[in-house]
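thought: user wants a sequence for this fold. calling inverse folding tool.
action: design(structure=
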């Protein structure tokens, strides 16, 4: 239960960071976008993109609150079963990356984003994936 609650707090917190960007906040925004070596952004997300990611992260957080039993909401067994594997898989794939700009196996390692990705983003994604797998295997 403690691990589920911790994962919920992390995911909902990440969701709120994305919602902050939707309303014009700048905290961590530029550091969170991969760039080419010349500084050109690889991604140019719109506010709607941040909102979609924020909704997804927040929903994942509530999913783990439901799994913990702190929120009593009956989701179909299939959603609980598949979600318990799909969510960690998403974060594991993010941690592995796309082999050029993002993830542990990225080639471009000299940009501001890549430094943050190596120190924080990819390890956090891997931690979320491992925690999700542990929760699924121990329930």
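)
observation: tool returned 139 residues.
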């Amino acid at each position: 239960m403690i691990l589920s609650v911790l994962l919920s707090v992390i995911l909902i917190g990440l969701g709120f960071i994305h919602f902050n960007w939707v309303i014009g906040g700048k905290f961590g925004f530029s550091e969170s976008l991969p760039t080419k070596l010349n500084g050109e952004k690889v991604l140019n997300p719109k506010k709607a993109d941040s909102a979609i990611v924020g909704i997804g992260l927040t929903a994942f957080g509530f999913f783990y609150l439901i799994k913990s039993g702190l929120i009593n909401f009956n989701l179909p067994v299939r959603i609980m079963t598949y979600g318990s594997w799909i969510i960690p898989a998403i974060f594991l794939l993010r941690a592995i990356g796309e082999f050029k700009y993002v993830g542990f196996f990225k080639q471009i390692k000299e940009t501001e984003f890549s430094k943050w990705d190596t120190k924080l983003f990819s390890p956090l994604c891997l931690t979320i994936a491992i925690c999700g797998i542990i929760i699924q295997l121990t329930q």
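thought: summarizing for user.
answer: Here is the designed sequence. Helices lie at 2-22, 47-68, 77-96, 112-138.
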